[in-house]
Amino acid sequence: MDLINLIFRLGVLFAIYGFLWFFIELGLKLLIGGRKRTLGEIYLIKTVKYLFLVNVTFLFCLEQMEEPVFHVNYMNLAPSFIVLMVYFLGKLQQKEQRIQMMTNFTQGLQEAPFNRQWELVLIVLSGLAFAGLVFYPQFSENAISTWFQKSILDIENTVLIGFVFKIIGFFFLIGMFFKMLNALNYIISGKPLVNAKTGFGTKQRKSDDSFDDFEEIDDNKLSE
Predict the structure, then answer these.
(1) Model-wide pTM > 0.85
(2) Which terminal residue of the chain has fewer beta carbons within 10 Å of its beta carbon, N or C?
């Protein structure tokens, strides 16, 4: 039950963090006006976003002590790290599938620039940052991360909007449950229980123009 509650809380955390970051992104877009951001700028902002999410997630693994001493709850540490990495990998997979869909079924619709290598480097960097905070937990308590944590808790405790995010957390929990079943079935049988593109046990022919799930999408194709 503790693990289920942890995954549920993390789902709420991720949803509210994304909600807060939406307004930060909106403010940045207003600051730069109508100028199109470069690929470097996009991934610089995304790096900041991911690192602070790592930081805030780690803060939820700290137990409050009467004395100003950092105490890490190691029972929550490993599950939180796994859920966070699965969340990042899921975001990458969703991005790739969306780009594939747009490329196959639409023409002239531009998607945000995407680079798979940078995405993977960012996920690895996030994992290393989480590991670093385990050894140096004092760096996790900074003004920005503490503000995010406090804002997330305040929104979660709000009656109406908090209830909405708790529903999102519930579906996040269900999604994580199916991902774990998928991974377990893949280990046992060598194939996933549920294929996100084809459903249960169905097969789909691939045309010459189709992409694999993990094939890199060239930026030039996106701008065509």
Answers:
(1) no
(2) N
